[in-house]
Amino acid sequence: MTEETHRTWDIIFKWxxxxxxxxxxxxxxxxxxxxxEVDLDHQKQGAEALESTRKNELNSYIFQxxxxxxxxxxxxxxxxxxxxxxxxxxxxxxxxNELFYGKLVVVEDRRVELAMIxxxxxxxxxxxxxxxxxxxxxxxxxxxxxxxxxxxxxxxNFSLELAACVRSALQEDRGIQFGHIKEAKTTCPYE
Length: 191
Prior knowledge:
Blueprint: H1 3-82, H2 86-101, H3 103-107, H4 110-124, H5 155-174
Helix pairs in contact: 1-2, 1-4, 1-5, 4-5
């Protein structure tokens, strides 16, 4: 092999070596970017899962508080509608006002809010000459058929409506079923 041929082959091998080094470097950069993208995707999924868990825990806390307040409102309205004991009536009246003007406002949905307003308005005038709210939670006139099972607008009927609205809110908003009811006697007129 002549010196010229040797030099030519040497240059060819060096170029192949350089090409191999460049190819290796490009492959390393490509692999790094691809692995980094996978890592970022896993981090994003982990952050989303953590956020979802956090939201579920917060929703659980709020739901528990909401359910307690809903049940407390229905129980308090029933006490005000049915009790004859002056002390129980006074205590229930104070509790109803606390719920009406306080924490319940934060967690109640529109139909429970309307039922609370209807009850409060009737209760404040002593249960005589009460009137019904004329619009449902969507601002549309209430279907008279929804009021069929109730009698006149008096506190005990408004108490039943409030309880029915609480049941409806928990069933629809939270997906809770309280047992199989073919057709409930009490329904929420504000749906």
